[in-house]
Amino acid sequence: MESWPPGGSGPAEAGPRLRGLRGADLAASASLLSGAGAGAEAGCSAPAVAAVLPAGGSGERMGVPTPKQFCPILERPLISYTLQALERVSWIKDIVVAVTGENMEAMKCIIQRYQHKGISLVESGVTRHRSIFNGLKALAEDQPNCRLSKPEVVIIHDAVRPFVEEDVLLKVVTAAKEHGAAGAIRPLVSTVISPSVDGCLDHSLERARHRASEMPQAFLFDVIYEAYQQCSDYDLEFGTECLHLALKYCHIKAKLIEGSPDLWKVTYKRDLYAAESIIKERISQQICVVMDAKEDEEHVGHRLEEMLKNELNHVKVTSGRDLQQIILEQCYNFVCVNVMTSDFEETQKLLNMLEESNLSILYPVVVISVQFLDYESVPFGQKMENLMQIREFAKEVKKTNILLYGLLVYYPQWETGLLKAIVDLVFS
Amino acid sequence: MESWPPGGSGPAEAGPRLRGLRGADLAASASLLSGAGAGAEAGCSAPAVAAVLPAGGSGERMGVPTPKQFCPILERPLISYTLQALERVSWIKDIVVAVTGENMEAMKCIIQRYQHKGISLVESGVTRHRSIFNGLKALAEDQPNCRLSKPEVVIIHDAVRPFVEEDVLLKVVTAAKEHGAAGAIRPLVSTVISPSVDGCLDHSLERARHRASEMPQAFLFDVIYEAYQQCSDYDLEFGTECLHLALKYCHIKAKLIEGSPDLWKVTYKRDLYAAESIIKERISQQICVVMDAKEDEEHVGHRLEEMLKNELNHVKVTSGRDLQQIILEQCYNFVCVNVMTSDFEETQKLLNMLEESNLSILYPVVVISVQFLDYESVPFGQKMENLMQIREFAKEVKKTNILLYGLLVYYPQWETGLLKAIVDLVFS
C-alpha cells in the first residue's frame, strides 16, 4: 500500500514537466482529506480512490472519422496522455476506461504500447451516462469475477481532457469526501441564452451567475452508484451532468471547485492543434548539450549554453558523466557536439543510452548531432559519407521515436554565426 | 457604390484561402435580403452596412501582459486578421474599432502597416458595452465632424474572432434586416450550472435547451442605438449581451443563427496556438514549383510535383511564365529549382516579383531555393560561397516577411531520396 498523505510519496513527477501541487501544499490538502474521514487516523489513512473515464464517444464534432480520444498528438493517441496524467497520481488505485466494443482491441494496443498500468476496460454504453454507469458497475463489489475492489471515492474524468493536474484531482477528491460530491467549474466564455421554439431569443442568462461545469468530478462511490441505479432511462439517454444525478437522486449538493484553464475539453480540430502546441512547449523547455571532455569543445559548449539560455528555462551542459541522470529527469532534447572525433562516437553512445531508457515511448526525443570539421585537412567526399552515415542512423532510431538530425560544420574556423545556426535548428 | 447582391461583386476572395459562401448560394441569400427591405428593388438595393469592433479588452484571462487582440500570430497582431476578414466583404462600408487611448497609436500603426482600409478609430469605454456604444455614437448622424454616415444595419463583432466568414455575416445581416436583431449561436460544450452562495451546486441547466451566444451579431442601427441610449448604467457596467439590450429596451426578439465552430473567441493562450496552426494550415495548402525551361528540370519538377501532391491540395509547376498570375492568386509557398544556372538567377527573379507584389504584407512567404550541382565538376569551395550568398539574400528578404531557405544538392546523380528531402523541408 502506498503512503498517505501523497505529498511524501516518492519521486515527485512521473509525467514529464506537468505542473502539480507539491510538498507542503499537497500535504496540507491531504491531511484535510484524512481528517474528514470518520474514524481515520490523521495523516495515514489513504482513502481508496478509483477513476472512471468514459471514452465511447464518436467525435462527430471534430469533423474527422477518428473519435477524438484516439486522434494522434505527436503520433500518440490523445487518451494515452489522459491516462498518463491519471496514472502518475500515486493514490489513484484503479482506472476504468469505457470504450466501444469496436475500439476495445485498439485500446488494448494503446495500453500495451505506452505501458499504461492499472487500467481496466469495460464496454461503453450508447450515451455518456451509460458508459459511466458501466464503469461504476465494474468497480462495485457485487460484480462477479471482478479483480477491482469498490473504492471509497470515485473520480469521473473525460478521456479528452489530457492536462488534468494532481492538485485539482486532490481538491475534488477531498471535497467529495466531505460533501459527497464535487466538481471542477470554470467561468463562462460566452453568454448563455435560451432560444424560443421559433429560433429567436427567449432570454439570456446573467453570465456572472453561471459557470461551466468541467471535469474532473469526484463522488463518494456509494452516492453516485446509488444515483445511477435509481435514475430514469430519460436521464441515462439525455442527461449530461453527473452532479445533477447526485442532487436529484441523493440530495447531495456538490461542492464546486474553481479549476484552471488547462481543464478544457478537446472538442474541435483546433483543440488538437492547441494540445499539440502545449505538449511541444512543455517538452522543449529543457535541453542538454553533450560535449566530449576536450578543451575547445568546452568552449563551444559553454557559448552554445549561453545562447540557448536566452530562449530556454533549463539548459545543461555535460561531458557525458551525468547523462544517465539527465535522461532519468526526462530531458527530451539533446545537442551532441563532436569536435575531435569523426565517427559520431558520442552521438552513438547517447543514442544507446536513450534506447535503453525507454524515454521515447511517451514523447519524441530530439537529438542534433553536430560535427565540427577542419575544412582544409579533411577531404570533402569523406565527410559527405559521414553525413550519409548519420542519415542511416536517423532512419534506424526514428523507429523508436528518436528524431536524429546531423549538422556538419565544415569551415576553417567556426564562428558565432554557426552557433546561431545550431540555435535556430533547435527551434525549428 | 458597389454592386448588390454581393454574389456578383468582382474578385471572389481578397483574403487568402478563407472559405466563404460563393456564387449561387450567396446570390440566393442576398436576394432574400433585398426582398425583405420595404420598397427595395429586388437585386439592386444594397443596405448600408457598417461594423463595430470593441477592442478595448485587457486580455487578463490570457495570462500575458499584451491584450489578446494585439498578440502576434505569425508576427501579425490578431486584430489585423479580424479586420482583414471584415474588409474583404465588399458590402461592409465602414469598420469602427474601439480601442483604449493607450493603444490608439499602436492601432494606427497596425492599420498603416497592414494597409487596412475603411477603418475608423474611437476611444473604448471601461466595459465592452460602453465601447460598443462609443462605436455606435460615431456612426450616428447626430455626431458633428464625423466622416461616417449612419448605416441601416450594424454588425457587432469581436476583435478576437479572426475566422469569421462572409456567409455568416450575410446571414446575420439578412436576419437583422427582417427581425431587427440577429446573432450567431453555437451548441454548449459544457453543461452550465448555477452555484449557490456557499459555492455548492444549486441547479444545472439542460444543455439541449441552451446555446452559447457568439459573434457576429447584427442589428437595425436604429434598434440597437435606441437600446444603448435607453439602457441603465448597470447594464453598461455589468451586461455582456447586446441581444439582451435589444430585447429589454426595444422588445426585439433576435433571430438566432447557427454558426460554425470557426466563430470561437481567442480567449486563452491555447487559443493563440490553435489560431496560429489554423492559419499555417490554410496558407500552406498551395505550393508552386518554379523551374527554368530545360529538359531535365521538367523531369525533376514533375516528380517533385507528384510527391507534393500526396500531401497538398494545390501544387503547380511553372517555368515562370504564369508566375505573376500565381502570385496574384495568393500562393505563399515556392520551391525554386535551379539546375543549369549556378547563380540563383531564377530565385532572384522570383524574389523580385514577390517584393513588388506586396504579397508578404499579410502572411510570410516561404521560398526554398534548390540548386542541383555536379559533384565531380564543380569545386566545393566555390559552391560553399554560393550557399553563403543565399544566406545573405535570406537576411535581406526576411525584412519583407519572405523566408528564404537554400538547399544545395551536391551529388553526382540526384535520386528520389533527395526529392523526398525537399518534400520534408517543405513540411518542416
Automatic annotation (TrEMBL), chains A, B:
This is D-ribitol-5-phosphate cytidylyltransferase. Its EC number is 2.7.7.40. InterPro entries: IspD/TarI, ISPD_C, ISPD_synthase_CS, Nucleotide-diphossugar_trans. Belongs to the IspD/TarI cytidylyltransferase family. IspD subfamily. It catalyses: D-ribitol 5-phosphate + CTP + H(+) = CDP-L-ribitol + diphosphate; D-ribose 5-phosphate + CTP + H(+) = CDP-D-ribose + diphosphate; D-ribulose 5-phosphate + CTP + H(+) = CDP-D-ribulose + diphosphate. The keyword Transferase applies. One of its GO terms (biological process) is isoprenoid biosynthetic process. The keyword S-adenosyl-L-methionine does not apply. It holds the Pfam family IspD. It comes from Physeter macrocephalus. Gene3D superfamilies: Spore Coat Polysaccharide Biosynthesis Protein SpsA, Chain A. Pathway: Protein modification; protein glycosylation. One of its GO terms (cellular component) is cytosol. It is found in: Cytoplasm, Cytosol. CDD domains: CDP-ME_synthetase (cd02516). PROSITE patterns: ISPD. Homodimer. Its main location: cytoplasm. SUPFAM superfamilies: Nucleotide-diphospho-sugar transferases. Keywords: Cytoplasm, Nucleotidyltransferase, Transferase. Residues 285-417 form the D-ribitol-5-phosphate cytidylyltransferase C-terminal domain. It comes from the Eukaryota. Cytidylyltransferase required for protein O-linked mannosylation. Catalyzes the formation of CDP-ribitol nucleotide sugar from D-ribitol 5-phosphate. CDP-ribitol is a substrate of FKTN during the biosynthesis of the phosphorylated O-mannosyl trisaccharide (N-acetylgalactosamine-beta-3-N-acetylglucosamine-beta-4-(phosphate-6-)mannose), a carbohydrate structure present in alpha-dystroglycan (DAG1), which is required for binding laminin G-like domain-containing extracellular proteins with high affinity. The gene is CRPPA.
